[in-house]
Amino acid sequence: MGQSGKYSTRNSSAPSTLEGMDFSNAEHRLVVIIGAGPAGFTAAIYTARANLAPLLLRGPIPGGQLVLTTDVENYPGFASGVLGPELMQIFEAQAVRFGTDLRDGTVTSVDFSQRPFRLCIDNKQPLVADAVIIATGATAKSLGLANELRLRGRGVSSCATCDGAFFRNQEVAVVGGGDTAVEDALFLVRFAERVYVIHRRNQLRASKILQQRAFAKEKITFIWNTVVDDVLGDNEVEGLILKNVTTEETSTLDVKGLFVAISYQPNTEIFKGWLEMNKLGYIRTRCDSTYTSIDGVFACGDAQDHVYRQAITAAGTGCMAAIDAERWLTRESQGEEIVTEQKYTCG
Questions:
Q1: Separation between Cα atoms, residue 34 and residue 105, nearest integer Å
Q2: SS (H, E, C) 153-173
Q3: Which of 64, 112, 134, 312 suits 37 as a labelling partner, its CA being 20 to 30 A distant?
Q4: In this structure, what DSSP letter does residue 217 have?
Q5: pTM of the entire structure?
Q6: For 262, which DSSP code?
Q7: Any catalytic annotation for residue 159?
Q8: Which is catalytic among the residues 130, 159, 302, 305?
Q9: Which residue is catalytic, options 111, 120, 130, 162?
């Protein structure tokens, strides 16, 4: 395929990490999907049903963030809820049923300067693709506590909208001081008896309107100049050890849930310099599509969504990416020039 297309240009600051690697005999695939979460598997289902024979690379965490959760009650089609790992097994089985080629491996570097696009798996294996769908997701930033990781899904969460309903009439804590933390606290007051917002500074970083709403809620209590030093509990969260950063005094807070809201990190590092991103590192996609700044490269799920971050919305954009890729490949094969408006804000 030629390098036609209005926006298929390389960023001048893009890295050249594949120089010296031999791609003369590299495996050539029509569509490569990077990431095995709800977005990646949905893209695989749709591209496989379109007879595009997709190759899906699982990455470092096959199944994405859902394999780190327990009960999922807000995914349509499961009236009694479903375990996160079980849901991803169902996704995978459906993708395989239609002919998706699943493979272990992590894409460690890319070269989008020419077509077919060049990829490197696990720093050693070359691969080329006519179209690439990025579904690498995002990782919730953690406090770095051993018990935080051990009790994830058993009282520790990074998604209030996913897990808030499990804490009806209980006391919970939110860690953070930005928009995400305050939004989580405002959501959790619908269910919890009391919500403690723990922040290491003496004022919030959240927008003024969110602060006003939170300060007006009697069920929200702010704990200033404080960090979480440990998470208590054997099989579930039973409380927190707090430390005042000014006095270094410690105290215990009895809560049943801990929501860590200190932001997410999109897993997009290897695409920096190649694709347009926002200041947080989320890949920018063109209005009403999953097209990135390079034609033939599409982004979906939490790698490009910093607003919703839900399994259902990730799956929806995975569907969009598959349809966009299939239509793009069809037009490319027919020699049609594809002109899509380079616009990132709709309206």
A1: 9
A2: CCCEECCHHHHHHHHCCCEEE
A3: 112
A4: -
A5: 0.77
A6: S
A7: yes
A8: 159
A9: 162
